[in-house]
């Protein structure tokens, strides 16, 4: 799988509480006749995977958020709550599999929501990729 560090949202980010991704992608200033909608046309795939197994929590949910100003954030897509039993190293979140159509704001990040007791171990990596790698 080809990964570009400038499109990385989390790099083995320890998730010990509900929190945003460590990095934000700046899609740039709009200008002239250029419209921004990274979800239109071909899908823009995301690889969001567990790189260190979790403990303690009940579940973890991953959401895509956008912002016009990098201050106020809106959730535009959210995956299912993944239970602890599935949160082992190598698990790839099924959703979000790509940025949704309508991603028009300047800034994009992920948001991780922890349910249950705060974990003391567990980490996630997330990056925009050319294509999602699947087992098989």
UniProtKB/TrEMBL annotation:
<protein>
    <recommendedName>
        <fullName>F5/8 type C domain-containing protein</fullName>
    </recommendedName>
</protein>
<dbReference type="InterPro" id="IPR048922">
    <property type="entry name" value="Bbp16"/>
</dbReference>
<dbReference type="Pfam" id="PF21190">
    <property type="entry name" value="Bbp16"/>
</dbReference>
<dbReference type="InterPro" id="IPR008979">
    <property type="entry name" value="Galactose-bd-like_sf"/>
</dbReference>
